[in-house]
Write a structure and sequence with these properties.
The chain is mainly β. It has a single domain, classed as Porin, CATH 2.40.160. It is built from 1 helix and 8 strands. Strands 1-2-3-4-5-6-7-8 form an 8-stranded antiparallel beta barrel. A hairpin with a 5-residue loop joins β3 and β4. The longest helix has 16 residues. The chain is globular.
């Protein structure tokens, strides 16, 4: 229930800011610095915080390529902490719309883990779809759903598949 409430709040804010964007749209050659956050607290697994930064380059107004870096902190219910990060490339396709302030997108990313998870998780990939709400020519609020798959090094642990939602901000340079 809390997730639905947070989702409704973010979408309300995004839609309220949309008219202020006017004619903002993405242009070829623009660089993007994006930051997103995922927070999860479940009764059977523990607390999970993941912050991701992306630096992208718009090859065209629709195609973007770049690198992502993330920091992960997990506090399992069983005790202890896990501190890790990931690094990898990403691709996003921004759909053209008749409302330039609202830009839907889809994307793919691959990443390798660093830190505490490197011994057990080899690499992963994720597919995402989302919406950019351009609040100005230089900034957007991003909401994305994702599905990711991780490949485990250990024969005793199965690969992890996760579906989730992130919220973030982008600056266009």
């Amino acid at each position: 229930m809390q997730r639905k409430m947070r989702w409704a709040i973010w979408m309300t804010v995004a839609l309220a800011l949309a008219p202020a964007a006017g004619g903002a749209e993405l242009e070829k050659g623009t660089k993007e610095l994006a930051l997103s956050l995922l927070v999860q607290d479940t009764s059977d697994a523990g607390f999970y915080l993941n912050g991701t930064g992306r630096f992208g380059f718009l090859v065209t107004s629709q195609h973007e390529v770049g690198a992502l870096v993330s920091a992960l902190y997990v506090r399992p219910d069983s005790g202890g902490t896990i501190k890790a990060g990931s690094l990898g490339p990403f691709y996003r396709f921004n759909f053209a719309t008749t409302t330039p302030a609202l830009l839907p997108f889809v994307g793919l990313a691959a990443y390798s883990y660093l830190g505490d998870l490197r011994d057990s998780v080899d690499w992963g990939w994720q597919a995402e779809s989302g919406l950019r709400v351009l609040v100005s020519a230089a900034a957007s609020v991003n909401v994305a759903t994702f599905w990711k798959r991780e490949y485990i090094n250990s024969p005793w642990v199965t690969g992890d598949r996760v579906f989730g939602l992130t919220v973030g901000l982008s600056l266009f340079l």
